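**User:**
Everyone, produce one record:

**Assistant:**
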Amino acid sequence: MPTDQTTPPASSDVTPQTARALVVPRHGGSDALSVTDREIPAPGPGEVRVQVAASGVNFIDVYQREGVYPIPTPFTLGVEMAGTVEAVGEGVDDVQVGDRVAQAMNLGSHAELAVFAADRLVPVPDDVDLEVAAAAMLQGCTAHFLVTDTFPVGPDTTALVHAAAGGVGQLLVQLIKAQGGTVVATAGSPDKLETARSAVRTT
């Protein structure tokens, strides 16, 4: 029987035209969240499209979803991610397709595919897992700022780190030790104190 020319090709031959994203259509509680299929975004001049491997979940997501930090709706949630560059826009020279990258504080990371300005991305070394890179971006920037800009930590520094078993806390412990400082840590339980001690041992 002749092939019907109007028959669509097999699904394996179809290039996906949409990708999923976690969208906030209106401000509110967690019930306001919607996983939505949206048209795959094209990178504009100076932008790249990233296949997101991991996206960090942070308290700022809650504030943005609830409207405490007002953002016009609808918007795609998430401000931290790591992934692989899938396409580049006009004028992008420093980032190439296939590069492993990460970013923080640019909206839209809770998606399978997301577009970001190329100059807001940082390279991820080959020996760093993309999930680790995504988890370290926002908390890592916070910890780095505290030990360099807020107070330059050095060999004569003794620093009290509260909640030392948390994400920022563990990074602070490691950065302070790496810069020669002494850490006095607090945590909410013996197990959490052991987590903080483990952070010291990995420095």
Summary: Residues 83 and 94 are 16 Å apart (CA to CA). The first strand starts at residue 18 and ends at 24. The domain at 15-131 is CATH 3.90.180.10 (Quinone Oxidoreductase; Chain A, domain 1).
